[in-house]
Amino acid sequence: MENKSNMNNEIEATLNSLNNMGRAEVSPYFYTKLEARLQQRKAPVTEGFLQRILNNPAVAVSMLTVFLILNIIAIKGISSVNDTARTKAPGSLQNFATEYNMNTGSVYNSER
User: Which of 61, 80, 58, 59 is nearest to 69 (CA)?
Assistant: First the structure.
């Protein structure tokens, strides 16, 4: 019981101290200073490692050349795979149709 009354007294004392508080005042240039600090923190983040490297034109051109060569090699590789697939199995579509029982005649080719 004594504990409860002590706790109530503490709560009342805390609430009374909050009643006497006034509004917090800041200096007129607080927000300007805050924005300047935030922009200073942002600046190193926006200029990253990749951006600094790509600012050098020689590096940028050489990277573009490497990507272009890799794309050409990939396209040639894909086209050669398609060519071998065509020459290897000319009736692969017919084999697929036979396997899945799709060898039904067309409606337009049927005789009346």
Answer: 61
Number of domains making up the chain: 1
Whether residue 68 has pLDDT greater than 90: yes
Rounded to the nearest 5 percent, the helix, strand and coil shares of the chain are: 70, 0, 30
- What's the domain range around 69? 54-88
DSSP state of 28: T
CB 112 within 8 A of CB 106: no
Higher per-residue pLDDT: 100 or 25 = 25
Half-sphere exposure of 62 (CA within 13 A, CB side): 7
In a domain, 72, yes or no: yes
In this prediction the pTM is 0.35
In a domain, 10, yes or no: no
